[in-house]
Amino acid sequence: MDFNMKKLASDAGIFFTRAVQFTEEKFGQAEKTELDAHFENLLARADSTKNWTERILRQTEVLLQPNPSARVEEFLYEKLDRKVPSRVTNGELLAQYMAEAASELGPTTPYGKTLIKVSEAEKRLGAAERDFIHTASLSFLTPLRNFLEGDWKTISKERRLLQNRRLDLDACKARLKKAKAAEAKATTVPDFQETRPRNYILSASASAAEQELRVAQTEFDRQAEVTRLLLEGISSTHVNHLRCLHEFVKSQTTYYAQCYRHMLDLQKQLGSSQGAIFPGTFVGTSEPASPPLSSTSPTTTAATMSVAPTVPGLAPPGEAALCLEEVPPPASGTRKARVLYDYEAADSSELALLADELITVYSLPGMDPDWLIGERGNKKGKVPVTYLELLS
Fold first, then answer.
1. Range 119-137 burial, b when 16+ CB lie within 10 A, else e
2. How far apart are CA 57 and CA 269, in angstroms?
3. Is the whole model's pTM more than 0.85, yes or no?
4. What letter would DSSP give residue 147?
5. Which of 166, 232, 292, 322 has the fewest Cβ atoms within 10 Å of its own Cβ atom?
């Protein structure tokens, strides 16, 4: 019990000495040992790495799970070391609603059949999203979180210890300075018999302060070296985070490629069924192709177009050469389109495109639905619909 009381009193004395030293430094009443410029740069880079890692981690979590309540629930499960329950994605939930709607409204009707097709696509999109979230969490979020909860906590602990060692060192310097000043002042006093014991005491006090300073300087140097090695390890952290970032981009690329593939398949299914239901119309519009342009509803993308029914005797492009110059445009059904991307013509039958230019497009009977006829001035040629945005 006595030992514990002595240790408690010693710790309280050290804490008080550090508090006094820190306060005097803040008020400019005590000198402070400054770290070298390289060490300060290492500290600044470590702080910047920690701050930006936190921000990137939080925003990535928002990207993967936009629902804040769900994020809080997952955080609590992780803190309690419990498995996070499986959660249905928004796409899977939409697919479920569409399937139930088709079952109730009639799965054999055109609307019901379309609902079933879209629900299947949304279900695949939801599954792809689930895989992306799982992969991104393991390859990107987990390493960032491990750095903040592991390496950074170790660095912070050693930095606090270094700060305490510095305060102890500066406190020893202050005590030695006061002891030497008192000893120098005592030497100026006449050598009376009664002053000699006091001079011996002051000299012993200065010697003890010098010894404490040497010990404090050694401990400070040792702790500074340990902290410096940890701070230089931030470079390895950057390399690890770079690798994780590449993995995140790879998983995101795979996810969006899957989404594009699923939606392209769905679009082809809807295009064929739409052409059977509304022959001779643009997919996504309810007006026939024969009325003037002013009566047709605008479409946002050219990929939502279908062509008129095939005419016997006219082969699709690629199966037989089609002389476009000899084919007049239809009396109705032409539309304006804006080019989304540059396109280089593969042969003389295609029309080269420049991004953001406006051209006139129309479809001919028997054409591949992925292509349209485009006109720009006196030039005419085939153009891919995926490079266009149809205008009214």
1. bbbbbbbbbbbbebbebbb
2. 39
3. no
4. I
5. 292
